[in-house]
Each structure stands twice: as C-alpha cells, then as structure tokens.
Amino acid sequence: MAIKRFNFFAMISRMKLINRWGLMRNTQSENIQEHSLQVAIIAHALAMTKNEFFGGSVDTDKIAVFAMFHDANEILTGDLPTPIKYYNPEISKAYKDVEYVSKAKLLSMLPDKLKEKYSEIFYLDEETVEYKIVKAADRLSAYIKCVEEVKAGNNEFKKAGESILESINAIEMPEVKYFQEHFIQGFFLSLDELN
Questions:
Q1: What's the CATH superfamily of 8-18+27-188?
Q2: SS3 31
Q3: Is 22 helix (H, G, I), strand (E, B) or coil?
Q4: Is the dihedral of CA 109, 111, 138, 191 positive or negative?
Q5: Structural domain boundaries in the chain
Q6: What average pLDDT does this structure show over 28-37?
C-alpha cells in the first residue's frame, strides 16, 4: 500500500522566506517565521500576565500556538503592507477573503484527522480573548521592530513606530499596559545597558 504524503509542514517551513516590511528600508530584515516566534513569546507573556495579575484564566500554551501560526497564510499571500491592507473597507474585506482561501489551501495539505485541529488554530474567532491577545502581541512585536530600527539609526521606521504605539495605547487590556510599563523600555537599551 502506498504511503500518502502531505506537504503542510514543508510549506510551513517556508515562513522563513517571506520578508515583512516590504515597503520599508530595513537595517535588519525580518521574516514571518521570526516575527511569529516573537509574537508567540509576547502573546504567551500577555496571557500569563492576564492570569497572574488580572484574574484571567486563559490557556497560555494555546495562545502561544495560535500566535505561532497567526501569519502562516502569508506563505501564499506574501506580507501585504499595512497601508494597502487597510486602505479602505473593500480592500480589507477582499484581503480577509484571500486570507481565508490561503488558510484553506494550507489546511488541505494535512491528513483529514489533523485538519479540524489546525482549523481551530487558523480560524480563531476574532471575538475571543485569545484572538485579542494575539492581535495585541502582533502590534507589540511591530512596535518593537520599529524601536529596533530607529535605535539602529533607521528613521524610516520612526513614523510607523509612532502610529503603532498610538494603536497599542488604544488597546484596553491591562496585560498590554503592564507589558508596556514593565518590558518595553528594555528594547531601547544597548546590550551593555541590559546587563
């Protein structure tokens, strides 16, 4: 009997080939695999903070997994720059449709018994606290990228950083405020200052 082979994980490994910030000059390129790991680390921290300091009861490990895959569809779509993605409601909706189709394509590369579980990860309901934590972590990661670029002398990211910080400040989640107050300043420091 022939062994049925699936390409999901080989395709997922291509996250490292998709660069972010395509319209910006970067001192250090960032791909979606690197970004997704940072978002997972931050989302996990936000979830732990929510549970430990603000009476939450979210599954920190699940949130980290959701974050690991939050941009996986960009393997097929590429990273559409934010000014285009959110230019108007029609483009935003069309891009959501493209995201949905690209996620379905990736899921089709799994055995049937795994599709349902991965589908729960890929199609996280936007009304859930888990989605909101991952989305906040995504914003924080983008802000950190801007901080690091400006710190390296690349003022191309200055305006983007200000805009992203404004959107983070509008997030009404105490765990996000806590992260800002207690952890963000470290990203402004040099290695010697961190020690």
A1: Hypothetical protein af1432 (1.10.3210.10)
A2: strand
A3: coil
A4: negative
A5: 8-18+27-188
A6: 97
The answer to whether 20 touches 35, Cβ cutoff 8 Å, is yes
* Token pair for 187: 């990203």
- SS3 letters for 133-195? HHHHHHHHHHHHHHHHHHHCCCHHHHHHHHHHHHHHHCCCCHHHHHHHHHCHHHHHCCHHHHC
pTM of the model: 0.93
Q: Which of 161, 133, 171, 122 is nearest to 21 (CA)?
A: 161
Out of 88-97, 101-110, 160-169, which region has the weakest mean confidence (pLDDT)? 88-97
Position 136 pLDDT exceeds 90:
yes
Q: Which of 48, 83, 58, 108 is nearest to 160 (CA)?
A: 83
Distance CA 58, CA 79 (A): 29
Tokens of residue 11, six digits: 């395709």
76, 102 contact by CB (below 8 A): yes
Residues, the chain, total? 195
What angle is formed at CA 69 by the lines to CA 100 and CA 30, rounded to 5 degrees?
105
